[in-house]
Amino acid sequence: MTDxxxxxxxxxxxxxxxxxxxxxxxxxxxxxxxxVPFGRRDVVGLICEVASTSGIPAxxxxxxxxxxxxxxxxxxxxxxxxxxxxxxxxxGLGEVALPALPQALRxxxxxxxxxxxxxxxxxxxAGRAALPDALPTRAIxxxxxxxxxxxxESIGMSEARxxxxxxxxxxxDWLALGWIxxxxxxNERSAPEAAASPTGSSLLPQLTGEQRExxxxxxxxxxxxxxxxxxxxxSGKTEVYLRALAALLVKRPDAQALVLVPEIxxxxxxxxxxxxxxxxxxxxxxxxxxxxxxxxERARNWLAAHTGSARIVLGTRLAILASMPDLxxxxxxxxxxxxxxxxxxxxxxxxxxxxxxxxxxxxxxVLGSAxxxxxxxxxxxxxxYTRLTLARRAVADAALPAVRLIDLEEERQxxxxxxxxxxxxxxxxxxxxxxxxEQSLVFLNRRGYAPILSCDxxxxxxxxxxxxxxxxxxxxxxxxxCHHCGWESRIPKACPECGNVxxxxxxxxxxxxxxxxxxxxxxxxxxxxxxxxxxxxxxAQALFSDxxxxxxxxxxxxxxxxxxxxxxxxxxVGVLNADTALFSHDFRASERLxxxxxxxxxRAGRAGLPGEVMIQTRYPRHALYLALSRxxxxxxxxxxxxxxxxxxxxxxxxxxMLRAEGRTLExxxxxxxxxxxxxxxxxxADRVTVYDPVxxxxxxxxxxxxxxxxLESGSRAALQSALRAxxxxxxxxxxxxxxxxxxxxxxV
Length: 748
Ligand SMILES: [Zn+2]
Ligand SMILES: [Zn+2]
Description:
Layout: E1 4-9, E2 18-22, E3 33-38, E4 41-51, E5 66-67, H1 76-88, H2 93-97, H3 111-115, E6 120-123, H4 125-134, H5 140-151, E7 155-156, H6 157-163, H7 167-176, E8 180-183, H8 209-219, E9 225-231, H9 237-251, E10 256-260, H10 267-277, E11 286-289, H11 295-307, E12 312-315, E13 327-332, H12 350-361, E14 364-369, H13 374-381, E15 386-390, E16 402-407, H14 408-413, H15 424-436, E17 439-443, E18 452-455, E19 472-474, E20 479-481, E21 488-490, E22 503-506, H16 510-520, E23 526-529, H17 539-548, E24 554-557, E25 570-575, H18 589-601, E26 612-617, H19 623-629, H20 633-646, E27 654-662, H21 665-679, E28 688-690, E29 694-701, E30 704-713, H22 716-732, E31 738-743
Parallel strand pairs: 9-14, 9-15, 10-12, 10-13, 11-12, 13-14, 16-26, 17-24, 17-25, 23-24, 25-26
Antiparallel strand pairs: 1-2, 1-4, 3-4, 3-5, 6-7, 6-8, 18-22, 19-20, 20-21, 27-30, 27-31, 28-30, 29-30
Helix pairs in contact: 8-9
Bound molecules: zinc ion (ZN) (2 copies).
């Protein structure tokens, strides 16, 4: 018998595969998961090659201990995708491929349980008749189990166990008594012929001419077809996605589609729209993928996509690496959203990988946004992406809201003072909405009560002891909190420096605005939605449903309230404190602000009632605000692109960032200087500009000092090849705690 060797990708910061001897009974297949010894541990890896020889001496080779035979191997195409991501983002294949799998698959001891189809049971007539009397009155959990089993067509074992810890033993008894029977597994329950007409409902909304054209263009696309769906807020982009998917599933009933959304808290709303529209598909055909799912559910959903039983996957950025053998269309909703960029580990852009994946598979990809990223807009300007425009709102009579700039300086000069940062016109507008029974939304991008707590007498300011940042005052929680490292302490009663008891909060966060609104708009029911008020799982959903149910008059919050939500009764949006982003050192700050304000403005006047947006500013003649008040994204985008071209900034150049974290700033800078010096002789480096190392704006976080080195080139290929050659050099350098390379960084 000849020897067999496999080359395995392992989640290690190395761009090599590891050789193992293979002598198990099951045939080794590329794309299969295996368990292998690595150092002193056993780890799960992925077979990337099967070979009859190995360059490693036989004495040093170890054996594969286990192969996962229940899970079908990952396809060659998926391995290519992972390989591309690894290459482009300067990582090892194993560092990309393994973290892309659900945790449960990366633990060999769970393989067999994970893949077993869950047993289901249904109640028989004999059980219905006998059970109520057969159970002791006080056996509450047992009664609940019996009731839940009787109430539905069938019950799964995991649900049963959640109701009663001894559910398996109980079901064995009940089976013997003839009270229940085994039922068909979940995904085989629905009628298969329904798939022929994925859109079961005949009550579809009437498409506008623009929507119809967009749907037709996407549905008739052949091969790789990137689309930019540029639609104003409320123009019905979701309806275009739904129709394009329906057309796809009619043409190819076995096809799969991937729909990405930026935020977890938007998926339930999206999910219900998709489930309602594709209700005729078999149960289990639509699955979600995001980090908020429990491990078991995430593994089940991943497997459903991998085996093809899930036809539509709705997910956040991590879903871009889902294995989908019949993937035929990708949608990226709100493609401009920075949430598509992973900020740790593999720092990938899910939007960019979506375009790559579509190209690889020769399928359409739809990038939707009211304010496309300038990268995407530039692709469309050059004709590389097909632009589809929805310039009007879809609901009849729903015009875009009127945007009004409130000049805070003028208000002050005319002696019309603001109350705690809320201007007179905004307060008056809030009151009139309350009288009319309409909802208002107040947006400011700063959570907590006040960003600064300070002492007038000596100038002391509350800071985080571990970071170079102020500690934010949180009044309801009675705490000072650091938003960078999570440090927390009680609010001091007096100044710790001079003993002055008159320490005061400066500036305003959402908590303070919430408090002010309650007093200046008497009788209004005010609700705050931000990262603090939605900390518990599911609470964001509950708060948003209060808004939809009309139990809230004024909603105050951070960007969490800006995105995607379809608030039917909001007619007024107030924007506070947006000016700070106008003068940021980050060249993308104005692009982000424009997108954010367009999003939040778009919440107003969606259902036919006229909407109004009030932006409080000290710079009412700033070009960004003027473009915003004209609803002129195109003007803003083209002017900003011209500025970027003159300044040689992305998308006209390509960037990469080396970041280092050290015990001292000097150590971090020294590492970057050494790395920069080692970069110069590398192939391609002559076409790359290496800037000087600089400290990050917030230089110290959790006692770690951070600095960065920017690289820039007009040639993506030159930058890529130099970065690749740089990796072994960087690994050999010492002196810092951590470092990472980010390609196409968003925060520069
Ligand atoms: Zn003091
Ligand atoms: Zn801190």
